[in-house]
Amino acid sequence: MLKTGAENIFIGEAGTVTHLFVLVLLALSCIFRAVSARREGGRKELGALTSGLVLFVAARALGLYSLGAESEGLSLLAAFPGLAGLYLMITSIVSGRRRGDYTPLRKTVLGGGLIAGAVLGGAALVLLPDSTAGPAAVLTGHLFAAAVPAGLIAGMLIDRVRRRAVVGTAVRATGGFFIGAAAAVLLAVAAMVSAHASTGLPGGGPLAFQLGALLDVMGMFLFLTWLTLEPAGKRATGAAGEMTADDCLSADAPAPFTPGGRMMEISRTIVSGGRETDIYREIAAAISDETGAEFVVVRASDEDDERFEVKGCFAERNDSRSPAFSLSLTRERLGKYCIDAGVAHGVFVLDEKTLGEDRGAFVPSELSAEKGSVAVMPVREAGEERAVVIAGFFRDKVPGGVPEVLKAYGINIVQIVGREIWAGRTRKREKELVLCKEELESVNQMKSNFLSIVSHELRTPLTSIKAYTETLMENVESIETDTVRDFLKVMGEENDRVINLVDNILNYSCMESGHLKVEKAECDLGELIKEVHAGLENRMLTERVNSEVKLPRTKVVLDADRELIRQLFHNLMSNAIKFTPEGGRVTVTLEEEAAAARIVVQDTGMGIPEDQLEKIFERFHQVDASDTREHGGSGLGLAICKNIVEWHDGNIWVENVKEAGAKFTVMLPMKDIIVRHAVSSGFIGAVRFERERYLTLLVEMLSGFLQARKASIMIFDPRNRTLQVVAAKGLDPEFVQNTRIEVGERIAGKVFAEEEALHVLDIENDSKVSRSNNTAFYGTKSFISVPLRDGDDVIGVLNVADHVDNREFTEADREILESLGPVISGMVKKLDAYETVSSNFEKLKDVMKSILHIREVWGARNMLNFTMIAMSVARRLNLDEKSLTALRMGMSMYDLGMMKIPRSLRVKKESLNEKEWDKLREHPDLGYSLLSPMGLDERIMRMVRSHHENYDGSGYPAGLMKDEISIESRIINVVDSFRALIMPGPYRRCFSMDEAKNEIIQGAGTRFDPKVVGAFVKSLHDLGARDDRCELVFDAFEKELEAKETEQEETVAAVKEDS
Amino acid sequence: MAKGKILVVDDEVNITQILEFSIGAEGYEVITAANGEEAIDKARREQPDLIILDIMMPKIDGYEACRILKANPLTKGIPVVLLTAKGRDIDKRLGYEVGATDYIIKPFSPNKLVDRIHQLLVGSR
Question: Is the same domain home to A415 and A338?
């Protein structure tokens, strides 16, 4: 029966050859797989493959033989090893493909296969009751053999469905899946047909045998194809992101991970200079493949950077290359977990509970809806955490074996981080070299400028002197006395010119080398200005330049070097005269601010080209350096001015006035600050000096913030249980050095004892204070004293009095003073801990200068008005008291970083190129780092950093969106944009209030939070805001101020009458 | 009767003043100008016998003024003496290139300048 077609190619001898040929191919492909598996170290896989192969081939051979021998017993015997072999091969192939948590998958396949086999086998027995025992047994065996591939398909499908339900991964069916499935189906059908044929039942016979054999060979071919299509190492070396259907097949639970070809491949890419981002992404993809993580993010940080930026990401769901995180991952945040998890360098695992608030730093925003767990591995390089790998799973637990995979790929990360560090350093060096070269070139240029300028400037007066001298000598007898007098006068003037130039050069070189001896003493600035002005009067007469000097009624006294300040004024004024045309005017104004004196010298010349506003303070720089220049000069005058101002810790800058001319402004900090000498403490030498400078700055900050002429910091001394002034401004030195206030005594003592702020509007009519207090001491009648707190303890008292505008201190001022408390107490504590404060000191100095500068640039009235708008908006939005206070302080600081941006960039926003924009966009971060040592409220810090973040995520620096931006920052964004529109730009007229308001409304929903814009528009209306020549005015407020001013004037008038 | 008419051009009043004195003392008529523009204008109108010209001046510098004077047929023949603080060889060469007759470096001796004027005027006659 079985021999019907000996000549047939599918059965009989020829058939056996065909079958054997296919089997050999199958064997070869399995060997190929086994070898590739071994290369990657999969020993277990190798064993399973080999034994499966041997069993399967042996079974097929036996089956073939049994067909030829017509032995049903042998055929049955062959079915079972065949089944076992097939199972072993399939599982080994599957386990070679994916590691990790695939136990359930495997169970499904096995279970599915067995159940399907049992069902089919049982059904066959029921359906074929008449068959003889022999054929029935063969049939059963074949059915079992067929059941395995059938079960395999069932298992795959079940797992796919399950995974789709859990992960939501789209089933990406590929050819591989169908080929495998088709092979299994064919093998199953072939087995059944062959079995049927051998039973002798109707429909059986040679034809059925032919068909069965044909199907069998086809099935085996397909199986073979499937095997070769999907070699074991494919996923490990193939392109990342490709997924085939059998990804979802299960594998043994944590198979020990052994570094494979993929790591080698990545390593090669790193060495051969692959792109950094590609490499990080490839690492992330590899880790995801090896562990089955739903997302993997690699973040790295640059040297000295606090934050870890996303470098590479791989997510199963979408191929988002730069996922957004709602929180930044800082060293601090990471360090917290390293300690929490008790691991310094290893891998730590966080689940929903332990992730807690910081979830946003580890799980990308777009996956925030998923519940799960993450494995985190910090990677250290040169003793510092430089990168972090985060592998996320949408499961409660991170599968075992993940840490090993992470650690293994850690080697790749160390490699790439190291490479980037070197590359970064090399780049930096190159940049330094280029800068160095440029500097050398500019020094060279400067040298030749100096030579040509000095030679001209010296030769001119020397020429005159020589010519006059010679002429006088030649004509000494004939010349008239008047002419002689004239000549001598010229000679004297020219002589002075030479002396002045030489002085300038010498002074300048002294200043530059730091050998200048500064002798500070009290000088009356008004007096000095008058002196210098008088000295220049002759020159102004000959050049026909008008002048005006505006001095305040009260003396402005400064601790400064008289000669240097005189030179400063002289240089500024003679510069102004030089550049003013005939009939023009030079105006000198002196004003007193809370913490600084301001001197403004303004001319009506042609102004200074915008691109040179900063350069003119460089030595040997002249706006017009050509031969045809109209104005001589050494090119040192303004450089000297800058030096002098800096010697006095001040600030100098220049701007063009709209009508005509240049306006030079000098801010010199007032030095009427006294620091109590720390007699008994261990402060010596430099430390003591530092301490005094530091305390000085703190007082300066107090008075600057509150615009108070008098300010003091008092600290409680537990040894004698009294309060003593550690630093003060505007107070009698005697008082500062010797006064001790008992707790409960006087105002400060009471404030300290009762731990309650005291805000007095009118000291003479206030029931809280007794009249015995020294009213003269407080200047104006209003003052504030607040307890200085350190946590819950009160450690001293802060006092401010005498507002520069001669007005009362407001409730707002009290809040600001109270919120300064923690900052000041933190700094005082640092001092007492003998901490070296130099670095903080420099920053603090910067901060102070910049805060004053902002006020200057904005104008004090604008500052106040825009703050009022911000506060009103915040109240409308029902922000709490803490936020209001933070906002009030934040308003004077949020743009601090801007003051560190070169002026040339600040003023010409319209024509900036991309690089310059990038520089400008650094200002929020700059401000942040400047303020960071001050220990300010987190809210304020956020305002500084995020006030340019837009509601729709289009802002900078982090591109935050909506609620990710703090509400205070959203308010400031609106107010600041409004301010920028109202105030004129250098190349732009100022907007009217309605135009500006419309601009803001246009931006609602895109740049701005619509809620904030709504409140903003209402606030403008409430405050009765209108524009007045590029400034904002509030009608209600103006009236109030006016009323106060008239009142004050009346009082003054009354006092005068009295005297 | 004046020996000749000399135009002195310098933006430094002190220089023109002393030259006016010392050249005038030798019997020359002296007229002055404070910059290149004025110099060209006066040269055209007054037709001096010699021009003493500074180089570093506002508006039109000495070189340019000299070039313009030499390009104009009315003033072409007037000898120009450059009187300048620019003492490098290259400056001098540039001076001769634009048509200057002589080149005197500041600081200068008024006596020697007057001698040179004599020579030049006698030579040209």
Answer: yes
Q: Exposure of A735 by Cβ count < 10 A (0-12 exposed, 13-18 middle, 19+ buried)? A: middle
pLDDT at A343 over 80: no
pLDDT (average), residues A488-509 = 84
A441 lies in some domain = no
Confidence band of A760 (pLDDT split at 50, 70, 90): confident
- Interface mutation vs chain A, best among B60, B86, B106, B113, most A CBs within 10 Å: B106
ipTM computed for the complex: 0.89
Does the pLDDT at position A68 exceed 70? no
**Which has the higher per-residue pLDDT, A338 or B48?**
B48
Q: Return the structure tokens found at A58.
A: 């042996």
Mutate to test the interface with B, among A486, A543, A606, A628 (most CBs of B within 10 A): A628
pLDDT value at A152 more than 50: yes
Q: Which of A358-367, A1007-1016, B79-88 shows the lowest per-residue confidence on average (mean pLDDT)? A: A358-367
In sequence order, the 6+-apart residues with CB closer than 8 A to the CB of A605 are A576, A579, A580, A581, A584, A660, A661, A662
Is the pLDDT score of A242 beyond 70?
A: no
> Is A704 within 8 Å of A690 (Cβ atoms)?
no
| Per-residue pLDDT, A596 | 76
- Using the beta-carbon criterion (under 8 Å), do B107 and A483 form an inter-chain contact? no
Q: Which of residues 69-88 of B touch A (CB under 8 A)?
A: 85
Q: B110 and A490 in contact by Cβ < 8 A?
A: no
Q: How far is B28 from chain A (nearest CA, A)?
A: 16
Where does a domain end: A836, A852, A887? A836
Which structural domain range is residue A585 located in? Answer: 483-669
Q: Using CB atoms within 10 A of its CB, is residue A467 exposed (0-12), middle (13-18) or buried (19+)?
A: buried
Among A248, A270, A297, give the residue marking a domain's end: A248
Q: Are residues A240 and A342 in the same domain?
A: no
pLDDT interval class at A388 (50, 70, 90): confident
User: For chain B, which residues make up each domain, given as ranges?
Assistant: 5-109
Give the count of beta carbons closer than 10 Å to the beta carbon of residue A473.
9
Q: Which residues pair with A392 in a beta bridge?
A: A295, A374
* Angle (nearest 5°) at CA A75 between A71 and A76: 120
CA distance B5 to chain A (A): 20
Asked if the Cβ–Cβ distance from B85 to A471 is below 8 Å, we say: no
Question: A237 pLDDT exceeds 70?
Answer: no
Mean pLDDT lowest for which of A603-607, A631-635, A699-703, A936-940? A631-635
Which chain B residues touch A464 with a CB distance below 8 Å? 12, 14-15, 18
Give the separation between CA A349 and CA A402, rounded to whole angstroms.
Answer: 10
* Contacts B61 to A, Cβ<8 Å: 627-628
Establish if A461 belongs to a structural domain: no
- Domain-embedded: residue A7: no
* Cβ contact A483–B21 (<8 Å): yes
Where is average pLDDT lowest: A70-79, A768-777, A1044-1053? A768-777
**Both A628 and A711 in a single domain?**
no
Distance between CA A717 and CA A658 in Å, rounded?
55
pLDDT > 70 in chain A, percent: 65
CATH-assigned architecture of domain B5-109:
3-Layer(aba) Sandwich (3.40)
Distance from CA of B14 to the nearest CA of A (A): 6
Tally C-beta pairs within 8 A across A and B.
66
**Which residues face B9 on adjacent strands?**
B33, B53
Average pLDDT of chain A, as a whole number: 73
Q: Mean pLDDT highest for which of A12-21, A222-231, A921-930, A1027-1036?
A: A921-930
Answer yes or no: are the C-beta atoms of A290 and A257 closer than 8 Å: yes
Contacts of B14 in chain A (CB under 8 A): 464, 468, 490, 493-494
